[in-house]
Design a protein that fits this description.
single chain; 140 residues; alpha+beta; six-stranded mixed sheet; 4 helices; 29% strand; binds coenzyme A
Length: 140
Amino acid sequence: MIRRSPGELYESIREFFVAVDDQGRVIGCAALHVFWEDLAELKCLAVAENTQGQGVGRKLVEACWASAAELEIKTVFTLTYVADFFERCGFHQIDKAELPHKIWNECVRCPLFPNCTEIALIRSVETVPAANGLLASALV
Ligand SMILES: CC(C)(COP(=O)(O)OP(=O)(O)OC[C@H]1O[C@@H](n2cnc3c(N)ncnc32)[C@H](O)[C@@H]1OP(=O)(O)O)[C@@H](O)C(=O)NCCC(=O)NCCS
């Protein structure tokens, strides 16, 4: 994940969802960044190590997806090393070259740039699994 200054976090705070435990402690976060009328990125997804494997990550993904649905954005992409997790959340892999150039602006700040091995995945209204039919129908 790309390191972000407190200033950057405040500037983008409206993009973030956080998961909190029953004592109000933050145990996970994810952000939805809008790129265009029909495209947004799910980014900054992380769950505290001691609460992983309990469905928190999936809920954060669903919160971002629902937010995209509210905005009538039909495709959400992500760049990740945990493709399997996103596939379990309704995403499928695509060739990174299919994504618009604009999305790479932030990558130059990554220590791995330009030798990035992240995998690109998208989730589109058209490919939403049946279990998420409510969200899908909210969009169409
Ligand atoms: C990846 C991460 C967000 C997953 O969060 P989580 O709360 O542990 O995941 P969930 O419990 O919601 O898991 C949902 C499903 O994905 C599967 N899953 C979880 N982590 C997985 C992984 N690393 N690889 C493959 N599958 C995974 C779960 O088994 C579960 O499967 P199910 O469909 O059988 O229920 C979390 O492990 C994490 O924060 N990792 C470190 C940061 C990171 O890699 N973030 C990704 C940013 S690109």
